[in-house]
């Protein structure tokens, strides 16, 4: 609920809303109130002095980044990631793109994979019939 109250809806289309909250880092939340699956691709690059909740990788030159691809079912919300800033300054570059899909597609629904057996922070959750917004992020 904090992301919806204090964050900004950066993109909204066809019942799909991508919310961002930049308080001491960055939280990204997608709310899919549509009747379609949604594919969300996110890049978090040029990371400096941040702790990220999902799959950070290092390049050969030592630059840290996170690339994710998630399929979110209809009428579900998902916290995509939480990036917490460390003391003494931080920086990052964020880009995202989502598109409605008619099915969940082939292959894994989440890359990097969610934690097993249950990822309580990142697993998609049902929006309780609140079409058009108002989930629980």
- Helicity level, as a percent range? under 10%
The structure class reads mainly beta
The H-and-E topology, N to C, reads as HEEEEEEEEEEE
- The coarse silhouette is globular
How is the quaternary structure best described?
single chain
* Low-confidence parts: none
> Rounded to an integer, what's the Rg over CA atoms?
15 Å
Largest sheet: 6 strands, antiparallel
Number of helices: 1
Strand segment count: 11
Mean pLDDT: 91
Strand content: over 45%
Q: What is the CA-CA span between the terminal residues?
A: 5 Å
Summarize the structure.
The protein is mostly beta strands.
Give a verbal description of the structure.
- It is a single chain.
- This protein has 137 residues and is mainly beta.
- It contains 1 helix and 11 strands, in the order αβββββββββββ.
- The chain has one helix at 2-6; strands spanning 8-13, 16-21, 25-32, 37-48, 50-52, 57-58, 64-72, 76-85, 91-101, 110-111, 125-126.
- Strands 1, 2, 3, 5, 8 and 11 form a 6-stranded antiparallel beta sheet that branches. Strands 4, 6, 7, 9 and 10 form a 5-stranded antiparallel beta sheet that branches.
- A hairpin with a 3-residue loop joins strand 2 (16-21) and strand 3.
- The longest helix has 5 residues, at 2-6.
- It is globular.
- The chain starts with a helix and ends in an 11-residue tail after the last strand.
């Amino acid at each position: 609920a904090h992301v919806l109250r204090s964050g900004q809806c950066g993109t909204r289309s066809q019942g799909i809303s991508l919310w961002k909250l930049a308080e001491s880092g960055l939280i990204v939340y997608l709310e899919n109130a549509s009747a379609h699956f949604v594919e969300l691709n996110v890049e978090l690059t040029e990371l400096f002095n941040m702790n990220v909740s999902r799959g950070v990788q290092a390049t050969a030159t030592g630059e840290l980044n996170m690339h994710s691809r998630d399929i979110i079912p209809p009428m579900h919300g998902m916290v995509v990631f939480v990036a917490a800033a460390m003391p003494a300054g931080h920086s990052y570059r964020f880009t995202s793109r989502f598109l409605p899909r008619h099915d969940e597609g082939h292959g894994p629904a989440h890359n990097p994979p969610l934690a097993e057996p249950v990822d309580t922070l990142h697993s998609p959750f049902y929006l309780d019939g609140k079409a058009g917004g108002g989930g629980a992020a």
